[in-house]
Amino acid sequence: MSWLMRESSRATREVSSNGIVRRMVNLPRSIVGGFSRVMSHGIGRIGIAGRRDQNPIPNFPLQPLQDPLNAPEEWTFLSVYEQQYGSTHPLFYACQFMEALKIAEDEHKFMFMYLHSPQHPFTPSFCWGTLGSELVVQFLDANFVCWGALSDRGEGSQMAVTLQPASFPCCAVIAPAAGNSIAVLQQMEGPISPAELVEILQRTVEEQGLAFGNSRAKEEETTREKAMEEERKRARAKEEEKIRADRQLREEQDAAYLSALKIDKEKEKLNSLLPERRFQKPAGSSSKANYEKPRQNPGQKQFGRSKEVSTAIETANGS
């Protein structure tokens, strides 16, 4: 009962204008910075306790290491947890925080985060009785992407500093948000029974899911509208470029036509002048003929005179 009172008072302090419990939390830079490294290697989905995905991360061993604290950070929580409480638990993804958040976003689910404090007195009863309950396991596996971490190591300690829980065990319902933030839709601390946990989670999914879904729908609609506007801008730019190209082509074709037309007109003009020059007598042809005619007359006259002299001589001899 004490836990429910703490949860209720926390919800009252964090209630928003639309009656939905929700607060935004900025993620540590180290967690956000790790996301780019994670995405470069792809997102692997893997759970322990014989519930591994069909596509495990190649570099991870199939069995937990003997020393849990020497395991890779993504496996440390599961190794520590299973060494003490066994393999009956929700399917926790052995990955970094941002990986799990991305998986939840892709599957349109909320993320259930559990910060494990091994030395806290409330931890054993919560792990054995609540997280080990078949009711809780089935509900979380069906409706959430689960991620766990040690509260005093790695990303778990960073999330503990970010959420600042007053007690352990600490669970939270997380949703992705814009920028380097997350939406903490519900934060639960201290011991809680399986039925109480499922009831709170169910209410969170129903209430927060609708509000968060509407918010995401608006964000997606805004994104779609921006994408459509960008597409329209690209289409307009492409059409304008086509119009400019067509205009330039027409101008080049018109210039080529006018140039060819000018050449044709010059040719026609030249051809029209050639017949006139062909039939026109040269200016010096008549004077040349007149010049040649006088040169021939003296000879003809001399030849005539010689003929007359010879005739006169023949006449005289005959007489």
Automatic annotation (TrEMBL):
<feature type="compositionally biased region" description="Basic and acidic residues">
    <location>
        <begin position="269"/>
        <end position="279"/>
    </location>
</feature>
<feature type="region of interest" description="Disordered">
    <location>
        <begin position="211"/>
        <end position="247"/>
    </location>
</feature>
<dbReference type="InterPro" id="IPR036249">
    <property type="entry name" value="Thioredoxin-like_sf"/>
</dbReference>
<dbReference type="GO" id="GO:0005783">
    <property type="term" value="C:endoplasmic reticulum"/>
</dbReference>
<feature type="domain" description="UAS">
    <location>
        <begin position="76"/>
        <end position="202"/>
    </location>
</feature>
<dbReference type="InterPro" id="IPR050730">
    <property type="entry name" value="UBX_domain-protein"/>
</dbReference>
<dbReference type="GO" id="GO:0036503">
    <property type="term" value="P:ERAD pathway"/>
</dbReference>
<protein>
    <submittedName>
        <fullName>FAS-ASSOCIATED PROTEIN</fullName>
    </submittedName>
</protein>
<feature type="region of interest" description="Disordered">
    <location>
        <begin position="269"/>
        <end position="319"/>
    </location>
</feature>
<feature type="compositionally biased region" description="Basic and acidic residues">
    <location>
        <begin position="216"/>
        <end position="247"/>
    </location>
</feature>
<dbReference type="InterPro" id="IPR049483">
    <property type="entry name" value="FAF1_2-like_UAS"/>
</dbReference>
<dbReference type="InterPro" id="IPR006577">
    <property type="entry name" value="UAS"/>
</dbReference>
<dbReference type="GO" id="GO:0043130">
    <property type="term" value="F:ubiquitin binding"/>
</dbReference>
<dbReference type="Pfam" id="PF21021">
    <property type="entry name" value="FAF1"/>
</dbReference>
